[in-house]
């Protein structure tokens, strides 16, 4: 399995509530339409020990393999989400990192 992750390092410019609503109501529904996408996760950083999170949020997109990821990368659905992401970048003060991982599930004790 392959995981494509986008890490938003930094903080929101202006209203976090508006930014978060935009993510949930506009951007993620666009990403959820990617062909071959098996799972989509949204992780929001939390304050810990009184310190703000280094990464405000993370998106995790899961695909069966590299071929399925390539199908999504060249899709019209992804192009719409990429164009929309420019709006997010304008509302965010920081860096956005994209990383691809080969994923392996490890059994845990019950």
Explain the overall architecture:
There is one protein chain. The protein is an alpha+beta fold. It has a single domain (2-102), classed as 2-Layer Sandwich (Alpha-Beta Plaits), CATH 3.30.70.100. The protein is 35% helix and 35% strand. The chain is built from three helices and four strands. The chain has helices at 16-31, 66-73, 76-90; strands at 2-12, 37-44, 55-63, 92-102. It has a four-stranded antiparallel beta sheet. It is globular and about 40 Å long.
Summarize the structure.
By secondary structure, this protein is of the alpha+beta class. Helix content is 35%, strand content 35%.
Low-confidence stretches: none
Instruction: Give, in spatial order, the strands making up the sheet with the most strands.
Output: 2-3-1-4
> Compute the gyration radius: what is it?
15 Å
Principal-axis shape equals: globular
**Proportion of helical residues:** 25-40%
Which structural class fits the helix and strand makeup? alpha+beta
> Average pLDDT, to the nearest integer?
95
How many individual helices?
A: 3
SSE inventory with pairings:
Layout: E1 2-12, H1 16-31, E2 37-44, E3 55-63, H2 66-73, H3 76-90, E4 92-102
Antiparallel strand pairs: 1-3, 1-4, 2-3
Helix pairs in contact: 1-3
């Amino acid at each position: 399995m392959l995981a494509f992750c986008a890490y938003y390092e930094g903080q929101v410019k202006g209203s976090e509530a508006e930014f978060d609503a935009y993510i949930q109501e506009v951007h993620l529904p666009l990403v959820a339409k990617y062909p071959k996408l098996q799972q989509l996760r949204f992780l929001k950083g939390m304050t810990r020990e009184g310190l703000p999170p280094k990464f405000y949020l993370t998106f995790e997109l899961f695909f069966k393999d590299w071929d399925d990821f390539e199908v999504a990368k060249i899709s019209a659905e992804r192009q719409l989400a990429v164009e929309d992401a420019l709006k997010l970048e304008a509302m965010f003060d920081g860096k956005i990192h994209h990383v691809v991982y080969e994923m392996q599930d490890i059994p845990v004790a019950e």
